[in-house]
Amino acid sequence: MSATPTPGDGRLDSLLARARAAVEEKTDRGVYTAEFRALLDEPLDIRPDPAFAAGPAWGEALRTADIDPEPPIVSTRPVIGPLVRGLKGAVRRGLRWYLPPVTAQVTAHNRAVVDVLAEHSREIVRLRREVEALRRRVVAVEAQAERDAARRA
Amino acid sequence: MTLRAAHQVVPTLSPGDGVGNYALALRGILRSLGLESELLAGAIDPSLRDEAHSMERFDAMVRPGDALLYHFAIASPELDRVLAAPARRVLVYQNPTPEEWFDLVSARNFERTRRARAELPRIAPALDMAVTLSHYSQEALEGLGIPRRAVWAPAVAPPAGFVRTPEPATVLGVGRIVPNKRWEVLIRAMAALRRTHPQARCELVGNPAEMEPYAQALERLARRLDSGTTLRGKVDDAELERAYARCTVMAFPSGHEGFGVPLAEAMARGIPLVTSRHTAVGEVGLGAVLQTSDDPLEVAEALALVLDDAAVAAELSERSRRRAEAYSPAELTRAVREALDPWGLPS
């Protein structure tokens, strides 16, 4: 990330110098202790977006997890459209004792599956990062070992 | 030949979106220059239906010789239609955030910004002109062979009757809740500030849409550090103005900006500012704001300086106002006129 340098502005520079001096003074006074600095330095605890492991289908899995037991009733047929809509409405009312409890159960199951998948995907992302970091360390250690061997030879 | 029309294309138009607001402001200026000017969008929020046309109207509206401005912030299917149009093609380069900022936070935005930035060399040869919102963003266009380039900095002005009524020790952060804004620096700075100013509090105003992993991490950090920071989410314009009015100082620790509209808005309202100095932030706040390092302790002490010293607060407020004069509607109109004049503006 590049920083755009600002031209010298004596007054603003002196204000910044005051701020920096205050940091030093408060560090000396024990306001900003080493423990407090360490606390501030802790990395941001981001729980990864599951889509990094699950791929683009993740959005669709989330979108379709909840089942709507009563989608809009539509019929655009001329003349008989209203009749068809009325009939569909009557069938829906007749099935109300049965369908909504079933779809509620399916929704609950889907949500649980999505939660499990999200957790697994986050774990996969974390493990991939760890593997990448370990690979880099192995490469560095191997390079060092080769240099040491060459020196000994 | 006189230029007849300058239309604009945005991938999406939604309320409170920086790109959309800028395009709407440009439309007013283009019309004031005597040009026909309409907005076309791939997706339009229902509340803005009257402001823009669907892309289905594209072929009927764009005629040979027209200027066609495409706002380039993410990869979108509208771009190829613009490139194939028999018009003078102007890229409004909104400086897409580098994808690494979205790592872990949003796979979708990671991919979209990666593709957008990678596409620039491909589309450059088809352009007649490229516009950026800051001089900093021009760097990305160097060496691409684009025939003409211009900087059109957004215009910012407070609403009529805006009056500051600062409440004690109130720090404000304004901007989307996205990782490049680095709100964690502000939250950590607030935790430090409250060691000596326990009454200090911070309002963070911004939309966290599609950035939930980051927003949730900020919430946890704010609580863990007892930072006195509240993430208020997206607010409407009236509430944003109230937040601007009641803050003592605003912080803007951003790591990447193509311009930084909230920074300029705050300056136009005479708000003292403590900012980073990265990318366009350094340019926009030049000589007006306290530009600190990324150390939260230094940010905290810069904020304390404004809270504790009324003379410093008054001086920074005045510097803000003066600097914001560079971002007036008159300045933007002048820049647009100057750039389009060679194509023959209507007299």
Write up what this structure looks like.
Chain A starts with 9 loop residues before the first helix and ends with a helix. Chain A is an all-alpha fold and 153 residues long. The longest helix of chain A is centred in the C-terminal third of the chain and has 54 residues, at 99-152. Chain A is built from six helices and no strands. By secondary structure, chain B is an alpha/beta fold. Helix content of chain B is 40%, strand content 17%. Chain B contains 13 helices and 13 strands. In chain B, the strands form two sheets. A seven-stranded parallel β-sheet of chain B has the order 3-2-1-4-5-6-7, sandwiched between helices. A six-stranded parallel β-sheet of chain B has the order 10-9-8-11-12-13, sandwiched between helices. In chain B, strand 9, helix 7 (212-224) and strand 10 form a beta-alpha-beta unit. The chains are: A mainly alpha (153), B alpha/beta (347).
Task: Reconstruct the topology from this structure.
The complex is a heterodimer of chains A (153) and B (347).
Chain A: H1 10-28, H2 34-41, H3 51-54, H4 57-63, H5 81-94, H6 99-152
Chain B: E1 6-13, H1 18-32, E2 39-44, E3 53-54, H2 58-61, E4 67-72, H3 78-84, E5 88-93, H4 107-123, E6 129-132, H5 135-138, E7 149-151, E8 170-174, H6 183-196, E9 201-205, H7 212-224, E10 229-233, H8 237-246, E11 249-252, H9 261-268, E12 273-275, H10 279-284, E13 290-291, H11 296-308, H12 310-324, H13 329-340
Helix pairs in contact in B: 6-11, 9-12, 11-12
